[in-house]
Amino acid sequence: MKHKGPPVFSQEERYKMVRAIKWVDEVVENAPYVTTLETLDTYNCDFCVHGDDITTTSDGTDTYHLVKAAERYKECKRTVGISTTDLVGRMLLVTKSHHERDETKGPNKNDLKEVGLSQDGRSPYTGTKQFVPTTKRIAQFSEGHEPKPNDKIVYVAGAFDLFHVGHLDFLEKASQYGDYLIVGIHSDPVVNRYKGSNYPIMNLHERVLSVLTNKYVSEVIIGAPYTVTMQMINDFKIDAVCHGMTPILPDVDGSDPYEIPKEIGIFHRIDSSNDLTSDMIVQRIIRNKFLFEERNKKKEAKEVYIENMIRKQ
User: Fold this and answer.
1) Locations of Basic and acidic residues compositional bias (predicted)?
2) What is the model's pTM?
C-alpha cells in the first residue's frame, strides 16, 4: 500500500498464488520492499532478479540498490503488456454496469473497437499496452510432456479470467482425480457469450499463459469447444471430466455441454471451498476506483519518464 498503492489480492492470496507457480521453490513471506543482502543470505540465494522496469519506494529510492551495489542483481526484459497495472487499467474507467450481463448497459461497441485497433498498441482510455503472443512464448510456459501410458487423464474447462486463488483451489482438487490434468480454455467470443458485457478482461493468450504457470496443469487446449464431445474424450483419452460449483450454462443450441460425460459416468462436480470469482476481483477494483486510478497514474508517469530518459541516451 505504501509504495505501490492498493494490491488487488490480499497478502495470503498472493502467497498462495506464487507458491503454486511451477517455477517457484520457496516463498519468503513478509519480505522487505527494499531487497537486502541479509534476505539473500538467509535463504541461500546467490542473486536477485527483476525486470528491466525500474521499481522504487514511495520516496523514489531504487528498491534494488543494495543488491546492485553488491553485484548480486540480474535483470531480465519485461514482457510488454503483462502487468497488474495493465490489467487494472482495463477496468479503471469501467463502471459497475459495464460488467453486468445486460448488454444495453455495456460500453459503446465503437469505443471498444477503437481501443482494439489502436495503431500504437496502447489503449486511449486506460493507457494499457496490448500483449502480443508468440509460439516461442507459449513454448516457454508449456511443460511439453505427454501423459504416460497408464496415466489417468482429467479434463476441466472454463474462462479462467483474471487467474486467482479460486481457480487455483479448483485446479488443485481437479488434479486429485487423476495423474495428468488438461485444461480447456474457451475463446474470447465463447466467454463473452456466457459472461456477457466486456468479459473476458484478459484475452485468450493471456489466460492460456496464466493457467500454464500453474504446477497442477499438464496441458492446455487453446480455444477449447464449449461442449465436451465423445470425439474429444476419445482423442485425448479423457478418464474424468470435472466442473466447479458455478452454474453450467447451455450451449448455443440449448444443450447441456457436459451431457456426454454425464451419460458415460465420468463427470464430477468439485467443491473447491473457495467462492472467489473473477467478478469479485472486478468489484474490488471498482470499490477502490480512486486509489487504483492514482496507482496507474503514477505508473504511467514513471513509464513516460523512463521512455524520455532512453530517448535522451
Assistant:
1) 97-114
2) 0.79
